[in-house]
Amino acid sequence: MLKSRMCFPAMVLFAAFSLIRPAAAWEMTGTRNIFLDGRDGRATPIGTVTFTPEVGRIGIALDLDYTRFQDFFLSMKEFKCIETPDEVVCHVPYPHANPQSVTPDDLAWLEHALLFFYKAPSDFGAKLWNGVYYKLRLTERGLVGTPQAIDLNQIGAPPDDTATPPYGPGERSEIAPGARWFGTLRIE
Fold first, then answer.
1. Looking at the DSSP assignment, which residues form a beta bridge with residue 73?
2. Residue 16 falls within a domain, yes or no?
3. How is residue 106 annotated by DSSP?
């Protein structure tokens, strides 16, 4: 009978580590689906983003499915919006030239492509100071965005530097969990 040279604790540790597989990293490649997760637990698919390799960066092309949105004419402008029980949530396309690319460590231009504002269903007009910016982070399953507050009036005029995203950490503030109907934006 052969005797093992490993002591019992070492064998248990070895067995435990052999069962653990490293998680496959999610890659920003191809076309991925975009969802807004509602307070009611439902995921609303709103479109896709296509990731294309570029030199040193990853190109992004957003394609929102506007059949999921309703047309709202607010403050003399048409917006694509989703009505929820508590609020109307409207997409605001970033209106100025930008690189339309990201890196795994810098998702700012994708975050800027997914700007929204909210208003109460009874409110009149667009409430651009009620802007919502989804701060994205990379996970094993995709990108997950947490809402932060911004003032969308800030992008009314073109920035001096079109390569620098205007909504840096200093222009955003935290939103209490559960305060917005769509508490998460996911890209998978």
1. 78
2. no
3. B
Q: Which pair of tokens denotes residue 19?
A: 């069962």
Q: Choose among 85, 93, 105, 100: nearest CA to 180.
A: 85
Please name the helix (run of DSSP H) or strand (run of DSSP E) that holds residue 53, with its range, or none.
Answer: strand 43-53
Predicted model pTM: 0.86
In the predicted model, what is the mean pLDDT of residues 74-98?
Answer: 95
**Residue 24 domain flag:** no
pLDDT per residue as tens digits for the range 105-146: 999 999 999 999 999 999 989 999 999 999 999 999 999 999
The single-letter DSSP state of residue 107 is -
Mean pLDDT estimate for the chain: 89
Q: Is residue 12 part of a domain?
A: no
The dihedral region occupied by 176, where left means phi > 0, alpha psi between -120 and 50, and beta the remainder, is: beta
How many residues belong to the chain? 188
> Residue holding tokens 């399953």?
141
Structural domain boundaries, residue 65:
31-187
Please give the tally of structural domains in the chain: 1
Q: Are 64 and 84 in contact (CB under 8 A)?
A: no
Closest to 95 in 3D by CA, of 169, 157, 170: 157
Burial class (CB in 10 A: 0-12, 13-18, 19+), 183: middle
Helix (DSSP H) and strand (DSSP E) numbers for the chain: 2, 12
Residue 147 contacts residue 175 (beta carbons within 8 Å): yes
